[in-house]
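Entry: Leucine-rich repeat-containing protein 19
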Amino acid sequence: MKAARIPILFWPFFMLVLSDESQTFKTEVKRNFTKQNYYLIPADINKEVTILDLSYNQITLNITDTSILQMYYLLTELYLIENSVTILYNNSFGNLSNLQILNICQNSIHTIQQGAFTGLTTLKQLYLCQNKILQLSPDIFVPLKNLKLLNLQGNLISYFDVPQLLHLELIVLHGNPWNCSCNLLNLQNWLNTSNVKLENENITMCSYPDKLKCYSIKTVPYKAECYSKLPSPITEDLQINFQSISNSTFNSSLNNLTRNSERGPLGKSWAFLVGVVMTVLVTSLLIFIAIKLPIWYNSLISYKHHHLEEHEVETYEDGFTQNPSSLSQIPDTNSEDTTVIFEQLHSFVVDDDGFIEDKYIDTHELCKEN
């Protein structure tokens, strides 16, 4: 009797477990749109979709695509393999807080903006393999607090700083042209001291310099000088203090610039005053010239008296010699008029002393003196 009661007592518990499992299977909605030659993410997909595969299309993840993705907030897996994505913009997956797997391999991604993965707090697996990524800032992965797998295989990365990923378990880095200089020492120390596993360690090789090509990035031997470049705790403290001092200096300089900018109108008023004074001076000078110019012009025109040159006298006499008939055309006059005319004609005759006689001398007074 007691044995019969036990199943009855646990029956509600079994029913609850079964209902949860059935509910889990019911909420998983898969949609496959591979090789459909889509240029945009379809907007007519069931809003309750949880697994969406859009691989092998022409999707670029532009602004229109990111706005459409916001509608599918129940997504847990998103596959965009071999599309036409070149840039991951800020907030590309902002509303996909349930996303756990994101695969964007085999695209042409060369730029990942700082906030590209904002909102992906539950993401566990990120695949960025076989793209054209040259460099990555470790701050890009800060929003991925639960990331466990990071695949960067087959890119163009030569240097990679230690990412701030506390829960990371597996990282894939082979197929990149690693430069095993001193700058890569931090990454090597992180791979050797943390719990993160480097997949395909034996083929994750150095590409530069040539003498280290036979070494894995995890086992490459570094010289003592590289270790001396690593910042010690004291050095880090000094760097922090120096940065704080630099920031204070920058702030004080900024305040000085602000004060100077506030004094700017004073300088402009001085410039305006100088401009007004110069305008008044130039205007006064022009007015003075306008008043005096007619007077100067009349004085210059009225000054005509000058000594005649010898060639001018000869020319004047030759003109009269060549036209003697002009005297015959003079009408009948008395003897005094004839004398005056004769004297006027010979007023420019050259004397024996070599001087030229001025025509302005009164000839009547000259005759009386003679």
